[in-house]
Specification:
Helix content: 55-70%
Order of helices and strands: HHHHHHH
Pfam family, one: DUF7939
Radius of gyration: 16 Å
Protein name: DUF7939 domain-containing protein
Number of strands: 0
InterPro entries: BatD, DUF7939
């Protein structure tokens, strides 16, 4: 067998598990569950949620929608599919951190 892999799996939630939780919460349109899964997922990323949102507009928009659902009194139905899609499409951070790129520039239109 492969005991090394089995051992590694027990050190904490695997990225796959966290993504599964996030997908389930998003696709059941559960804003509270999505927020928790999102925080757990973000902790495993090399950047903060705010940094990811700052460089990927669909994620920023989806987070705005999630926050609106969590903190507004309207109680309107929140649909998590956009957020899940944004997370899946999020470009990897490695490309952004390229020293030749323009990662040092702030966004032109801060939200």
């Amino acid at each position: 067998g492969q005991p090394a892999i089995a051992r590694a799996m027990q050190t904490g939630p695997s990225p796959r598990t966290v993504l599964d939780d996030l997908k389930r919460a998003c696709l059941t349109n559960d804003p509270q569950g999505t927020r928790q899964a999102l925080d757990a997922w973000a902790r495993q990323q090399p950047e903060t949620l705010a940094e990811m949102a700052a460089r990927f507009v669909p994620l920023s928009d989806a987070l705005d929608g999630l926050n609106g659902a969590l903190y507004s009194e309207t109680g309107k139905l929140w649909l998590g599919e956009d957020l899940w899609r944004a997370v899946r499409k999020l470009p990897a951070a490695e490309h952004i951190k390229d020293p030749a790129g323009d990662a040092g520039l702030p966004p032109l239109y801060p939200k």
